[in-house]
């Protein structure tokens, strides 16, 4: 499960027992000693902490929490190093950020894709470079991401972003607003602090800037490196990225027809997808019982029915959905999970009711969604 926490991503995963578990979105690998539930999200690096330690961010900074802290024994963090860089001892280490500041953990192992570190206790973890050694070996594995913006009159902008390979693609995409990510192979090699340019065929389109220096960055903002100003009649282009010596580091043939269709579908209002004769008048859309504040509807007999009738499996699904929608916190969820069944349901309802009508409405809607697939049966009053 993944969700947003402000502008930053949040993932949650339940590890069923001992073993290694890899997150498909972040590339993180957790080595577990026992069953536990993990919650992890990216947070911004503190530049002052890095500078005081003579380090530079080499990957996203992850805040890792667990329902059982002792369950996580190792963490594998994805890196973006080339084969030559991996031969350099001391280039990579892991920054461990706590309330006391930044400490540096030496790797147990550096593989072709990950840095392996022992977990002393859970907090914030992220890859860091030795600044001096990074200067000596500035080449890294990178990627080129393309985003097509919605058209404005006859013009449409194609954004080109040069990034390190271990930057999270979904975190970049969510910052591009209504622009659509164009699916294409993105891998390349880039040199930190070297300048790059973009060339486009057919020629004649404005590209700005003409040249830009590639810098290592891991949020919180991901702005376009280049903008290519196309016309809405352009069906496909050939793009290439060149280094400061004119060498080609990435080239792709890019079709714009699919992304344009996706943009146009996104811009169709939901009500326009339903024939006019099938639309329900606005005043008839709200059932009479929904005019009672949601937190009031969760009291009395409704609370009793939920305690007596909702199964453990459904309760766990409710907890998942309420955490995903930020109605409850991770500690509230883990506290409820360990309670006996009747206490779990009662505590969940009471916790949500205390948060007000909006939170209670989310619980009611979540229960209806789950009821549709699990046949909980109607709860009178909801």
By DSSP (H or I, 4+ residues per run), the number of helices equals 11
- Major sheet size, sense and barrel closure: 7 strands, antiparallel
Rg, Å, rounded: 25 Å
Summed up, the domain count is 3
Strand order of the largest sheet: 1-2-5-6-12-8-9
* Strand tally: 22
CATH architecture of the largest domain: Sandwich
Determine the N-to-C terminus distance: 27 Å
Helix content: 25-40%
Mean pLDDT over the residues = 86
**Unreliable segments of 5+ consecutive residues:** 1-8, 282-289, 373-378
What does this structure look like?
The protein is of the alpha+beta class. The chain has 3 domains: 2-136, Chondroitinase Ac, Chain A, domain 3 (Sandwich), CATH 2.60.220; 142-266, Immunoglobulin-like (Sandwich); 291-374, Death Domain, Fas, CATH 1.10.533. 26% of the residues lie in helices and 35% in strands. It contains 11 helices and 22 strands. It has helices at residues 47-52, 83-86, 131-136, 169-174, 257-266, 294-297, 300-309, 312-324, 330-337, 341-354, 357-374, and strands spanning 2-5, 8-15, 19-22, 29-32, 36-43, 55-66, 72-78, 92-98, 101-105, 109-110, 114-118, 124-130, 139-148, 155-164, 180-181, 187-191, 195-201, 206-208, 212-213, 226-231, 236-243, 248-255. Helix 7 packs antiparallel against helix 10 and helix 8 packs across helix 11 (357-374). The longest helix is centred in the C-terminal third of the chain and has 18 residues, at 357-374. Residues 303-371 form the CARD domain.
């Amino acid at each position: 499960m993944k969700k947003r926490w402000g502008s930053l991503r949040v993932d949650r995963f339940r590890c069923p027992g001992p073993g290694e578990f890899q997150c498909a979105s972040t590339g993180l690998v957790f080595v577990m000693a026992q069953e536990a539930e993990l919650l992890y999200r990216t947070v911004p690096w503190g530049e002052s902490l890095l500078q005081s330690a003579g380090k530079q961010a080499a990957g996203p900074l992850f805040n890792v929490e667990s329902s059982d802290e002792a369950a996580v024994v190792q963490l594998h963090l994805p890196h973006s190093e080339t084969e030559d860089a991996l031969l350099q001892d001391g280039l990579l280490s892991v920054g461990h950020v706590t309330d006391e500041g930044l400490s540096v953990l030496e790797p147990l192992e550096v593989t072709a894709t990950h840095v392996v570190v022992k977990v002393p206790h859970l907090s914030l973890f992220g890859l860091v470079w030795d600044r001096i050694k990074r200067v000596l070996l500035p080449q890294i594995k990178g990627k080129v991401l393309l985003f097509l913006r919605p058209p404005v009159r006859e013009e449409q902008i194609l954004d080109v972003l040069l990034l390190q390979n271990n930057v999270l693609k979904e975190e970049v995409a969510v910052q591009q607003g209504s622009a659509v990510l164009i699916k294409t192979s993105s891998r390349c090699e880039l040199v930190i602090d070297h300048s790059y340019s973009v060339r486009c065929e057919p020629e004649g389109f404005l590209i700005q800037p003409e040249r830009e220096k590639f810098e290592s960055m891991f949020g919180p903002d991901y702005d376009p490196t280049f903008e290519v100003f196309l016309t809405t009649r352009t069906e496909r282009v050939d793009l290439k990225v060149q280094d400061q010596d004119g060498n080609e580091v990435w080239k792709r043939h890019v079709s714009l027809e699919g992304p344009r269709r996706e943009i146009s579908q996104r811009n169709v209002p939901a009500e326009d997808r339903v024939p006019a004769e099938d639309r329900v008048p606005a005043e008839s859309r709200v059932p009479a019982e929904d005019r009672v504040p949601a937190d009031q509807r969760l009291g009395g007999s409704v609370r009793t029915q939920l305690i007596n009738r909702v199964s453990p499996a459904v309760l766990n699904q409710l907890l998942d959905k309420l955490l995903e929608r930020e109605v409850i916190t991770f500690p509230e969820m883990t506290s409820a999970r360990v309670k006996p069944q009747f206490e779990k349901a009662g505590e969940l309802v009471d916790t949500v009711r205390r948060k007000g009508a909006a939170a209670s409405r989310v619980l009611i809607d979540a229960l209806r969604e789950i009821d549709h697939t699990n046949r909980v049966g109607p709860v009178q009053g909801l």
